[in-house]
Amino acid sequence: MINSRRSTTVLTGLVVAFALLGPAPAVADEPTPTEPAPSEPPRVELVLDVSGSMRARDIDGRSRISVAQQAFNEVVDALPEVTQLGIRVLGATYQGEDKKVGCRDTQQIVPVGPVDRGQAKAAVATLRPTGFTPVGLALREAAKDLGTGATTRRIVLITDGEDTCAPPDPCQVARELAAQGTRLVVDTLGLAPDEKVRRQLLCIAGATGGTYTAAQSTEELTGRIKQLVERAGETYTRTPTVVGGATACDGAPMLASGVYTDRETFSEHRWYRVAVRPGQELRASVSVALDRPVNRDYGVLLRAVAPDGRELVRGADAGSGRADVVSAGLRWSDDDDSEDDDDGDNSDDSSDGDASAAAQQPRMVCIVVSNSFAPRPGTGVTPGMPIELTVDVVAASPTPRGPDLGRGWMLLALLTVAGLLTGLLTGLLTRWWVATWREK
């Protein structure tokens, strides 16, 4: 009994000792940057080809138009409440042979705005493949439907064939819309495995910073349209700036804080430069759109590199293989430029002034975007995959440095004491349990 009381007393003392040590210091939560909410709801218009070729029954044994109608119904049902959606068709009403008349055949069957789901699905259900394919004219009219605004608007074009009514050439129309600075992005989906159609749709998407995808099944079409409609909600208050990355740090374009768009071919490295001053932090992220079939084994790497080739930090690949976009991000700040040697030597004030001025000079940091994409057989490799690069240079975060073994002996001593106490506690508990068991 005496041994039991003595053990209990020792255990109580150990518990008190641990309590006096206090909990481990918590790491301060990093501040989360907040983006200003868009001043207007996201707007997107679906443009559907209803020309005669949409009667072909080559998608899962069903006609192309029936697959598109099912996809539209599912998209309308899953539409976010805040998104304003419109639907425009082309080649849907004129059944004659007069090309001049047929090439004006485009109508908006659902106006851009909050969607009445029943009305939208009813309008799509009545569509029957009919006439010509005036893609260029439909894109111009869709841009008018969406209007202007401060945030990016999207057109999603679904077609199985190339434009049969040029002029206007749809690729030229896309270039004109991009040149107007209308904050308009056109994403294209091809329903027929035709190389000429693929090139035209790639050109339309590339001119506006959009993506191209070939949809060969009901699931692919439905999933892709849903992704694009959801992406319309991720709008920007300014249009991404087109920039061309270099093949090395020397001669790479200088970037300020902002959003940029570029294209990168398979397994390529593209370089950019950013000036970072002492006390500032570089934050960068990149997204690569999967606008064509690629092998599943891939990744995206974002690095910050010094001009002499030393790697400063690298970001983590955030892709899962099932999304239409693969992303990576990084943060870096120069935290070694403020440490001065205080040795009491003030013999040369001018040299101290020069050193202080040099310490305030911005440091050049190279950003490298790399990918390990590999195309599937038959997939075109040009133009490159669309990438979107976001750069921000802000005041360095005041997050305190956590202690580690390389910085001092305090943590090592604390770990040693904790190990000894743990061993002692385990031994005392074992002796107490044995003593209690023997008494019984």
UniProtKB/TrEMBL annotation:
Q: Where is the composition biased (Acidic residues)?
A: 334-352
Question: Per UniProt, what is one Pfam family of this protein?
Answer: VWA_2
Enumerate the UniProt keywords alphabetically.
Membrane, Signal, Transmembrane, Transmembrane helix
The organism's superkingdom is given as Bacteria
Translocase in keyword set: no
Q: Which SMART domains match?
A: VWA (SM00327)
* Region Disordered, residue ranges: 326-360
- What region holds the VWFA domain? 43-232
| Spans through the membrane | 409-434
According to the UniProt entry, the coiled-coil residues are none
The signal sequence is 1-28
User: Would the keyword Transferase turn up in this protein's UniProt record?
Assistant: no
Q: PANTHER family, per this entry?
A: CALCIUM-ACTIVATED CHLORIDE CHANNEL REGULATOR, ZINC FINGER (C3HC4-TYPE RING FINGER) FAMILY PROTEIN
Name of protein? VWA domain-containing protein
Which source organism? Micromonospora costi
